[in-house]
Predict the structure of 2-oxoglutarate (2OG) and Fe(II)-dependent oxygenase superfamily protein.
Amino acid sequence: MAGNGLPTLGRVKLVDLIPSEGLPSDSYKLSVSTLSQSLAQYSAAIIQFPMNVGALLRSCLESSRLYFHHKPSFPSADSIQHSESREWCKTSGYRADPHMWQEIYDFRPGLTSTEPGNEVEIPPAGLVDIYSLLGKASRDILDAISFYLNLRSSPFTEILDNVPLRNREISSSVVSVSCHGRPSFQGAQHHNLTAQEDGQIVMFSDHDYQVDRSILTLLKSDKAGLYIRDLHGHWVLVDGDLGPQEAIVYPGLALYQATAGYINPAMHRTDISNLQGSIYGRCTLAFKLMPKSMASLNCSEMRAAGHGVEAQFQLPLPVDDFMQRSTDQLLNRNSFATFSFPAAQEGSIKPIMQRKKNNLRCKPLPPSKRLRLEAQRVLKERVQDIADKKGIKLRFCTLKECEGHIHSLDSPCANVRMEIGWPPGVPFVHPHDLPNKAKIGFLETYEPGWSETNDVE
């Protein structure tokens, strides 16, 4: 995505993102462009709902405030949140995270929440209606992202819940209302999360953040405090000036995995240092569009659209396995796909893996493989860095198509090739897929003199 970028977070009307039959309208194309550019620069965008939705959002937040305000000061042992990712699709009802000074109520259709005494719990009001509304909005936003990526319509249907749910099905997607920093909540000591402040941008630790495992998250807060790291590594306050009918949308790790890394997940954190004098704390309402637990995340649609798919995204990843992996493992762009083996087999597999590693050290790589690995390295270290700094999302052509594009000034990839300094005469395809001669031309462009220092025929 070329251009100077957006000066602030992009604002898009939901009604303009709703697809219709036939050719896309100008308002749809403009809204998709604004949404996509905002996600590329800020990993977030502002969605404007119709005016009547503002009343429902406000009602749910006010109901949530009262719900948490009447909760006991000390959370019970049964309500303490545990980091058991295997139970991610079964959370329902009230839970607490004393370390983060946070209380949460999960509403998940198909599950009935109960108190520890097996009594049915009365939830905050309006969650059924808001679940339906935000669920539909999330799917429309996801289809708009698919349009931007040149994918076919509704490409992620197979990994989403049925609409409506079938008999005895439990929703994977969830509405979570949460409360940060309730003064009467004594589960943990208040700790200051912020550092040096500069308007809407603050400096946080590079390692102290959260990443949702959702496909998309739609979030509405009653007080500002959500910071998301932008393209340049700055932490930007994204909910500082939301209108009554506006909410924040940001992508999660599941969308990053399903799009082969083309849509980066939002790294976010919450500042609760400005809650002095508040009797309720900071309440948020979030809808998380989640993949089905029995599905697999794969990039077949990305391949079909002509996008390059790196090694770590080549094989389908079952959602349950995806939920067990660490965030660092999923975000490691330089690693190849890793596989999980049963614990009983680990002892017999490690020596084999060690022998293979030792053999690779002694035996030189074939010239073609060296070229391929070097091209992948330069893509990640040089080309991707140039594209990120210019706010460009790389969408490679297929080799056959681009052989004609490189001789035309008005081809689909002409602007991108010019913006990132792609070598003349080399098709704009993923370097992994280039012929060997073109790979050398690609390497020489971004690392002049490469062929002189590397003995590759």
